[in-house]
Design goal:
Number of helices: 23
Structural class: alpha/beta
Number of strands: 16
Helix content: 25-40%
Strand order of the largest sheet: 9-10-14-13-12-11-15-16
Number of domains: 2
């Protein structure tokens, strides 16, 4: 099978490219690993500070070097619906650890911001960099060296990638990720999108819009559309960092709590003090990373992971590229239709068979590496299951259903929705970009139209309100890259461009910013690199230039003579308004150090 051979060949080229950096990384992991409890290197004064608030029996245990101690890294806050359930998890984990003969302590907290709250607001310019802050915050918690394994409580957009970077930076420690699950289904996403469009056109008021939004985002758990948060959960399971079947169980249920307790006990079982040591840095290798990319394509996941996966892999000395991600997309069929790639939400995906069905289908056709190590042990096949609550309150697992519960949501490999995953690299005289085509109709994947250039999403929205956009055009939104303003998601453009497309216009977006997993039905060439602030050609496009976006051929061009484009002066954009307010002044250093989008947009070296 061509797909199987392609997966092997791409994995091998990643392994070869990463050989030197991976060997250096694994050497560091080996140097950090100990044969006794890690706290054994601490002085008596160090240790006394580390267990000062523990019970007498815990102090006795921690004073020796035989009892394993779990460090809990939590992203709990009660403003963010996806992370609010984590309030009770530390006690669940501590109780489960005690039952298993170990100890657990909260090692530290990390920030967790919600892009849904900050979309279109100044705070959105901190979002991408929050990933690196989260990684560093987790590192501070774990740097006390009191711990033999770590349990990471995180769900949403930048939180999980940041925690993975931290987990791999402390690669000598076993790491288990514990999710909180999606909120129950509310107002269907397509109905919510219709109300947004009606509001943008002035046909309904703010009261109607707020009512629709509140019915959609209505309780604890992740948003139910398939954006970055739920893509994170898919990745953690298919890469073996969750326990099997853990991703999409709703919060506040007995099964959710049972999975959390089980994860704590499993973390204790895989420390260096036992017989099944599984350090995260050795566990996650090139095959695990490729499995994650395959899962992203098979489910039509978030474009944000074309940045995050590169940064996550780099933390383990693995050099993943956009071309790898694009080539894997060509080899992997789309098996899931979850909004915005369909009408159903992630709860429907779970009910149709969920991750167990998906993993089994991909394994059976050879599109996943089965011979990986996971937190559950050897091989990915044990993840082709469905987790259920046993009669005694523990987790039991059954083989994933042989048939999909709804083939309109989750298809078998023999009935894929399309032969490729729908993520593609575009290249041309405007640089390189990413496009997600799984939600874009085939007839809209090639757009050639005059450019309309804006330096902000607000500029485009104001032009729409003024009635200036009723025509065919390619919106070029520049100065939105990591160095310019932190690369915010330009989600506010989705509704306006969708309206214009529904009116019959040919429209597309080209930007050095981000759009996330909710980019939707409008063709969008995003993450354009080099960005405008670094002299990228996107900054030299003028109003009226003909731009051609061809997602089939993989090209992104402005149709002007090469000499003319090069001779155009560098554009000037006043970014002073992006440098302060809502904490942005504190992130000046991050903007200066930020890497390119195709290198993971990181503000620090990870390999």
């Amino acid at each position: 099978m061509t797909g199987r051979n392609d997966i092997q060949a791409i994995t091998e080229r990643i392994r070869e490219r990463s050989k030197v950096s991976r060997e250096i990384y694994l050497g560091r992991v080996a140097d950090a690993a100990g044969k006794t409890a890690n706290r054994g290197v601490l002085s008596c004064g160090n240790l006394a500070h580390g267990f000062a608030v523990c019970s007498p029996s815990e102090k006795v245990a921690l004073g020796g070097d035989k009892v394993a101690n779990i460090g809990i890294i939590t992203s709990y806050n009660d403003m963010l619906s996806a992370h609010q359930p984590f309030e009770t998890y530390p006690q669940l984990i501590k109780d489960a650890a005690r039952e298993a003969g170990g100890i657990a302590q909260v090692a530290g907290g990390v920030p967790a911001m919600c892009d849904g709250v900050t979309q279109g607001q100044p705070g959105m310019e901190l979002s991408l960099f929050s990933r690196d802050v989260i990684a560093m915050s987790a590192a501070i918690g774990l740097s006390h060296n009191m711990f033999d394994a770590a349990v990471y409580l995180g769900v949403c957009d930048k939180i999980v990638p940041g925690l993975v970077i931290a987990a791999l930076s402390f690669g000598h420690l076993p790491a288990i990720f514990v999710p909180a699950g999606p909120m129950t289904s509310g107002l269907p996403n397509d109905e919510k999108a219709k109300i947004r469009q009606l509001y943008a056109e002035g046909k309904v008021g703010r009261a109607e819009l707020l009512e629709a939004e509140s019915k959609s985002y209505h309780g604890p758990g992740t948003c139910t559309f398939y954006g970055t948060a739920n893509s994170n959960q898919m990745l953690m399971e298919i890469m073996g960092l969750h326990t099997p079947g853990a991703s999409f169980v709703n919060p506040g249920t007995p099964l959710r709590d049972a999975l959390t307790r089980e994860a704590a006990k499993r973390a204790l079982a895989i420390t260096a003090l036992g017989n099944e040591y599984i350090p995260a840095g050795r566990m996650i290798d090139e095959r695990s990373v490729v499995n994650g990319v395959v899962g992203l394509h098979a489910t039509g996941g978030s474009t944000n992971h074309t940045i995050h996966l590169i940064a996550m892999a780099a933390a383990a000395g693995i050099r993943l590229t956009w071309q790898d991600i694009s080539d894997l997309s060509d080899a992997v069929p789309l098996l899931a239709r979850v909004y915005p790639n369909g009408l159903s939400d992630v709860n429907h995906f779970q009910a149709a068979g969920g991750m167990g069905f998906l993993i089994r289908e991909l394994l059976d056709v050879g599109l996943l590496h089965e011979d990986v190590q996971t937190v559950w042990g050897e091989g990915l096949r044990p993840y082709a299951v469905e987790a259920k609550l046993g009669a005694d309150g523990s987790v039991v697992r059954e083989a994933a259903p042989k048939l999909s519960g709804d083939e309109k949501v989750l298809a078998p490999a023999t009935k894929a929705f399309q032969p490729s995953g729908g993520l593609k690299v575009l290249g041309g005289n405007l640089g390189h970009a990413i496009i997600k085509t799984s939600a874009v109709k085939p007839e809209r994947r090639i757009i050639e139209a005059p450019a309309l250039v804006f330096d902000s999403q607000q500029g485009l929205n104001e032009a729409f309100k003024a009635g200036l956009l009723d025509r065919d055009f390619v919106a070029v939104i520049r100065f939105q890259g990591p160095k310019a303003n932190g690369m915010p998601e330009l989600h506010k453009l989705t509704t306006v461009l969708g309206i214009l497309q529904d009116r019959g216009h040919k429209v597309a977006l080209v930007t050095d910013g981000r759009m996330s997993g909710a980019s939707g039905k409008v063709p969008a060439a995003i993450h354009v690199t080099p960005e405008a602030l670094e002299g990228g050609p996107i900054g030299r496009v003028h109003d009226g230039d003909i731009v051609r976006l061809d997602a089939e051929a993989g090209t992104l061009e402005v149709l002007v003579p090469a000499g003319d484009l090069a001779l155009r002066p560098e554009p000037v954009c006043d970014l002073s308004g992006n440098e302060y307010g809502m904490g942005r002044e504190l992130f000046a250093g991050f903007r200066q150090m930020a890497g390119r989008a195709d290198h993971g947009a990181s503000a620090f070296g990870t390999a």
